[in-house]
Amino acid sequence: MSKTFWIASILLGVVLIPNTWALAREQTPKPERIAITDLKKKLDSGEKFLLIDVREDWELKQDGAIAGAIHIPVAELDGRMKDIPKDVQVVFY
């Protein structure tokens, strides 16, 4: 193959790869904060979402937990992300 073909292929790859990454970032929803009152409304309405409590065990014992929440301490969160469904809204607290 010609030298021009290889140079064009390399340049095309350099252009396409970053654009692909940029597109993937645009499609990933950005985290947002919600007010406690809005969380209460979501809970009361029966809206479907996954509630994950990231506090430590002693904090749960001291303050209690929201019924239905899944407990994953923040220190374990990174290792457990593969277990969290991607097709549902997730609220961490």
Task: Tell me about this structure.
With 93 residues, the chain is mainly alpha-helical. The protein contains four helices and three strands, in the order ααβαβαβ. It has helices at residues 3-27, 36-45, 57-63, 74-80, and strands at residues 50-53, 70-71, 90-92. Strands 2-1-3 form a three-stranded parallel beta sheet, with no helix packed on it. β1, α3 (57-63) and β2 (70-71) form a beta-alpha-beta unit. It is globular. The model is unreliable at 5-21 (pLDDT under 50).
Keywords:
single chain; 93 residues; mainly alpha; 3 strands
Short structural summary:
The protein has 93 residues and is mainly α. Helices cover 53% and strands 10% of the residues.
Q: What order do the helices and strands follow? A: HHEHEHE
Q: Name the poorly predicted regions.
A: 5-21
Total beta strand runs: 3
Q: Which strands sit side by side, in order, in the main sheet? A: 2-1-3
* Broad shape: globular
Q: Helicity, in percent?
A: 40-55%
Largest sheet: 3 strands, parallel
Strand content: 5-15%
* CA radius of gyration: 21 Å
> What is the mean predicted local confidence, pLDDT?
79
Q: Give the CA-CA distance, first to last residue.
A: 57 Å
Question: What structural category characterises the helix and strand content?
Answer: mainly alpha
Secondary-structure map:
Elements: H1 3-27, H2 36-45, E1 50-53, H3 57-63, E2 70-71, H4 74-80, E3 90-92
Parallel strand pairs: 1-2, 1-3
